[in-house]
Specification:
Blueprint (H helix, E strand, L loop, with lengths): L15 E6 L3 H11 L3 E4 L4 E6 L2 H13 L7
Antiparallel strand pairs: 1-3, 2-3
């Protein structure tokens, strides 16, 4: 994001997002509770987002995927 206070004029921030329809709020709450991190935000068009943005909380997400890698061909 553009930020004049930084030497380069930009600030880099990492974040993890899961976006689901509002009807799936219970699933997002379950994910948030099982990970123990994150905040749920209301987005546009009936969407909800689970967001993890702090470095400490992002480490929880990284550790989770290190322990339980995704099984996919992509």
């Amino acid at each position: 994001m553009k930020k004049n206070e930084c030497k380069t004029g930009y600030q880099v921030r990492a974040r993890f997002l899961i976006t689901l329809h509002q009807k799936d709020r219970a699933l997002l709450e379950l994910i948030r509770l099982s990970l123990g991190v994150g905040i749920i935000f209301t987005g546009s068009n009936d969407l909800l987002q689970l967001q993890v943005a702090s470095v400490k909380e992002l480490q929880v997400i990284i550790n989770h995927f290190d322990s339980y890698p995704l099984i996919t061909q992509k």
